[in-house]
Design brief:
Blueprint: H1 3-6, H2 22-64, E1 72-75, H3 82-85, E2 90-95, E3 101-106, E4 110-115, E5 121-126, E6 135-140, E7 147-152, E8 156-167, E9 174-180, E10 188-189, E11 199-204, E12 208-215, E13 218-228, E14 235-243, E15 251-256, E16 262-267, E17 271-276, E18 281-287, E19 296-301, E20 308-312, E21 316-324, E22 330-339, E23 345-350, E24 356-361, E25 365-370, E26 375-381, E27 389-391, E28 397-402, E29 405-412, H4 420-424, E30 439-440, E31 451-452, H5 455-486, H6 489-501, H7 507-524, H8 526-549, H9 552-556, H10 564-589, H11 594-600, H12 611-635, H13 639-647, H14 652-663, H15 665-681, H16 684-689, H17 707-714, H18 723-757
Antiparallel strand pairs: 1-29, 2-3, 3-4, 4-5, 6-7, 7-8, 8-9, 8-10, 11-12, 12-13, 13-14, 15-16, 16-17, 17-18, 19-20, 20-21, 21-22, 23-24, 24-25, 25-26, 27-28, 28-29, 30-31
């Protein structure tokens, strides 16, 4: 018997471990508390992010919403001053800048200045008309210029200006109106025969004056030029009379553009004769209305004097201006139409600071329009019938004289320039040959139209992102696949941090490098750059082919997963060879200058800062984002799937394409969308490497302007609360909405991919 048989048997069991000691219970309670706190922390953090994005969205919408509101008209108490009951018929109504003083010019040549709020008479001036004459016609200079010309019954013209002096006696603002005669108090003789001037027009400058008038079917034109003697300081006026062809039909109105280039004569029922004032020749005779039963009843010029607004007897208003036709010659072109009602248009009043205008018809219906936006902002009845009206320079006060009363209105119309067609459609701007997409937010004066099309900015954003993703996506995904699946762990630990370190580079440095070094270098080595893009993959394939043909002893000497190290000198040598061949290729095939060959022979515009430079620079910035996320997704594929596939006889390549990539496809797709979002929202690289020109051209050698870069550049110079300011917020809202929609679609696709390949 052995010792075990003789050993006593114990009936007691080993002592059990107690998992319910006070210390362990306390530890479990602490861990459960930490889990709950972490869960709530993550939940609150996620909700806070969603709330922040929602608040940003609503704040942008709050700033943008006033852009799409129409005009508002508030009726004030009408005024019926005593002096108005005895006054003769008005020829002109006007309001000064501060909306405090109004001016009324009567048919007898009497000017009355009155309080615009109370109606009381402030001053009465009798214009210095020649004895025995009366006023037969009146004309104002361009909107914003307080110069008025009176056509007299003796063939003379009297020119005066109404000015307003602001003083502060006893700290009280006081406006004193007065009449000036910039060209002398004596009337100027326009018609030597002394016939009444039925219509008159005026264009004044700093040292010149141009007067036009009509009497019967004859056109009269007088130019005055002021010259100053440098020695004596005396000023003299030189006259120049211009003879023009006679008009066949009765004249309705005369207009001149401020550049003194065109004279518009509206005559007949609906006809316009345009004269070239440089050549004194007839440019053409144009039919203004297609409807034979309609005729022109009112007309006016818009701010800047380029556009001619023509109202007809059917309640329509047409916009016309000179534009070059298909033959290259300037022609009076019909641009757009507006509709007030079905009653004849009685008067048209242009704004003095914007391309808007007001129209009044025979039934007293008032319409507020904006030409560039092609927008009808308000149609409202303001009077039983039509009457003379005056619009203040700030376009916030309106006066209509009717039945011995001055009907007053307060007008609110802050953002008429914005409409869907002006933001996204082609717009025919003044002096342009055809409709086009243009972003030009600022100009030297307010005479120019605001060009606020978001189409070139959106196109530029997508173009920059497209060219960046073309370069970045294949390189980043291929690098991620190789690093996660084929590369040795030791090499992966060195390569992955280096690539991710690229993400920490400031984008302003990349943009600075791209704009100052890369752009001129690419311009001077175009054949080498394109050769580099073609030869690099061929060089890698050739290196792989040569490596596979080497003796097994040499191939096995390199540890598995370190093959990529051999490609470094191959890529460097291929790049050096391509750049070395660049001048020789340029001389051999492109006459020594590839850029000149592209521009002249191919007819392709070449800008130094273009989409190619953006693709190279921004692709370099986007690659780390895509690589890091895609590499983590591929590396996280369970090894059991890989080993199982290999065990069943699949090759490593088959395993990669049919198992690993499909399983990691949600992460790879997320990487691409995050990279796309980074490219869409990039600011500094596209700002410094594209020329920042808002053009719509798919040409890779053309620059662009993106939404993000435009907001960064123009937001500091925009007026807070102005139209430009709110349109920039609108572009930010468009960018946010685009990103939100793209990310939502990406998440839906990612969830479907995860659900589809989760069973692998």
């Amino acid at each position: 018997m052995n010792d075990m048989a003789n050993s006593p048997m114990t009936s007691s069991l080993p002592e059990r471990i107690d998992f319910n000691t006070p210390a362990l219970q306390r530890k479990r309670r602490i861990r459960a508390l930490k889990d709950r706190l972490t869960r709530w922390y993550v939940l609150v953090g996620g909700l806070a992010v969603l709330a922040a994005i929602t608040l940003i969205f609503f704040y942008l919408a709050y700033v943008v919403l006033p852009l799409f509101r129409g005009a508002e008209l508030e009726t004030r108490e009408p005024l019926a001053p005593a002096w108005l009951k005895t006054a003769q018929a008005p020829l002109l109504l006007s309001i000064e800048e501060q909306n405090m003083v109004g001016m009324r010019v009567a048919a007898n040549g009497e000017v009355v200045f009155f309080d615009a709020k109370k109606g009381d008479e402030m001053d009465r001036v009798a214009l210095k008309l020649p004895a025995g004459t009366s006023v037969t016609s009146i004309a104002e200079d361009q909107p914003g210029h307080p110069t008025v010309a009176l056509g007299l019954s003796n063939g003379q013209v009297l020119v005066f200006k109404h000015n307003y002096k602001v003083t502060y006696p006893d700290n009280k603002k006081t406006i004193t109106p007065h009449i000036d005669y910039p060209y002398g108090e004596a009337a100027m003789n326009l018609d030597p025969q002394g016939r009444p001037l039925e219509h008159v027009a005026i264009v004044s400058g700093d040292d010149s004056l141009l007067l036009a008038a009509s009497t019967g079917s004859e056109m009269l034109l007088l130019g005055l030029t002021q010259q100053e003697n440098m020695l004596t300081g005396e000023s003299t006026l030189q006259e120049e009379r211009i003879n023009l062809p006679q008009i066949a039909d009765p004249v309705k109105a005369i207009y001149m553009d401020p550049r003194k280039q065109w004279l518009y004569v509206l005559n007949g029922r609906a006809q316009a004769d345009v004269f070239n004032l440089n050549t004194h020749q007839l440019n053409g005779r144009y039919k203004l209305l297609d409807d034979a039963s309609a005729e022109v009843t009112a007309s006016s010029q818009l701010l800047g004097g380029i556009s001619l607004m023509v109202g007809d007897s059917k309640g329509g208003i047409g916009q016309w201006f000179m534009a070059r036709g298909e033959d290259g010659e300037p022609r009076l072109s019909h641009v757009r139409d507006f509709k007030l009602g079905d009653q004849p248009i009685s008067s048209i009043a242009p704004e003095q600071r914007r391309k808007g205008f007001l129209a009044l018809d025979k039934q007293g219906n008032l319409g507020i329009f904006h030409s560039t936006a092609h927008r009808t902002l308000l149609v409202e009845n303001v009077a039983p019938f039509a009457g003379p009206m005056a619009l203040s320079p700030r376009a916030n006060r309106l006066i209509v004289e009717q039945g011995g009363e001055l009907r007053r209105f307060s007008l609110s119309n802050p953002h008429p320039e914005v409409s869907f067609s002006a933001l996204w459609g082609k717009v025919w701007y003044e002096s342009y040959d055809k409709p086009s997409y243009v972003w030009q937010s600022t100009a030297a004066t307010t005479d120019f139209e605001p060009k606020l099309s978001l189409s070139p900015l959106t196109f530029g954003t997508l173009k920059a992102a497209f060219y960046a993703m073309i370069l970045a996506a294949p390189l980043a995904i291929a690098a991620a696949v190789y690093t996660a699946y084929f590369m040795a762990p030791g090499m992966r630990r060195k390569v992955k941090p280096v690539i991710e370190l690229m993400e920490a580079l400031p984008t302003v440095i990349l943009g600075f490098f791209a704009g100052l070094f890369l752009a001129p270098y690419v311009e001077g080595h175009l054949p080498g750059i394109f050769s580099l893009l073609l030869l690099t993959p061929l060089g890698i394939l050739a290196a792989g082919l040569i490596w596979s043909r080497l003796p097994e002893r040499i191939r096995l000497s390199l540890p598995a997963g370190w093959e990529a190290a051999i490609l470094i000198p191959v890529v460097l040598a291929t790049g050096a060879f391509a750049l070395w061949m660049s001048p020789h290729l340029e001389t051999m095939f492109f006459g020594g200058d590839m850029r000149l060959w592209i521009s002249h022979d191919l007819g392709i515009t070449y800008d130094q800062r273009n989409a190619l430079v953006v693709g190279l620079a921004m692709g370099f910035a986007v690659i780390p984002n895509i690589f890091s996320i895609a590499e983590d997704a591929i590396f996280s594929v369970p090894r059991s799937l890989t080993y199982g596939s290999l065990a069943l006889g699949a090759t490593p390549w088959q395993t990669l394409t049919r198992v690993v990539i499909l399983t990691a496809s949600p992460g790879i797709f997320s990487a691409l969308m995050i990279g796309m979002g980074r490219a869409v929202g990039e600011t500094m690289i596209v700002l410094m490497a594209t020329g920042n020109t808002p053009v719509m051209d798919v040409n890779i050698f053309q620059g662009m302007r993106t939404l993000a870069a435009n907001v960064a550049v123009e937001m500091p110079e925009s007026e807070v609360g102005g139209t430009h300011y709110r349109v920039l917020f609108l572009s930010a809202l468009v960018l946010l909405s685009f990103t939100f929609v793209m990310n939502t679609l990406a998440e839906l696709i990612r969830q479907r991919l995860r659900k589809k390949y989760a069973s692998l």
